[in-house]
What does this fold into?
Amino acid sequence: MLGPKIGAGVTVVKEHDRGLPQIPAHPAELNQVWTNIVDNAVQAMSGAGTLTVRTYREDEHVVVSIGDTGPGVPEELRKRVFEPFSTTKAVGEGTGLGLDISYRIVVNGHGGDIVLRSEPGDTRFLVRLPTSEPPSA
Ligand SMILES: Nc1ncnc2c1ncn2[C@@H]1O[C@H](COP(=O)(O)OP(=O)(O)OP(=O)(O)O)[C@@H](O)[C@H]1O
Ligand SMILES: [Mg+2]
It folds into this structure.
C-alpha cells in the first residue's frame, strides 16, 4: 500500500488491530482508495511530515484511518471534497477525481462510508467498511 513515492522526509506510523475480521471486499478497488488518499496526504505534506495509518474495529465496521500532518483541507473545499473536479491543484497536477472515485468505491461498491476530519496539522480520512455483506436490495 505504501510505495516508494513516500519520500525520506515522511515518517510512516502504522497502528494495526491484529484481530480484525475478514470482510467482504474488492481488494484491487480498495487499493485505489488507499493510493488516492496516501497520494493526497504525501502531496499535502510536501515531502515532510508524518503519515499515520490506523486500523480498528468499530461496531460492525472495520475502520481504516489515514492521517497526515499537512496544512489541512481548505475550509471552503471540505464539504465538496468528494465531488468530481474539486481540486486545488494546477492543471496537469491533479484532476480532482481521486476522492470522487474513492467515495464511489467505498460507498457504492462496499456499502461503507468515508469521512474527512481536517484541521491544520491533523487531517484524517476515515474509511469505514461493513464487516458483513449489506442486505441485497
Ligand atoms: N490530505 C489532504 N490535505 C490537504 N488537502 C487535501 C488532502 N486530500 C485532498 N485534499 C484536497 O482535496 C482536493 C481533491 O482531492 P482529489 O484527490 O479528489 O483530487 P486531486 O488530488 O486534486 O487530483 P487527482 O487525485 O485526480 O490527481 C485536492 O486538490 C486538495 O485540495
Ligand atoms: Mg488526489
In short: The first helix runs from residue 27 to 44. The chain has a mean pLDDT of 94.
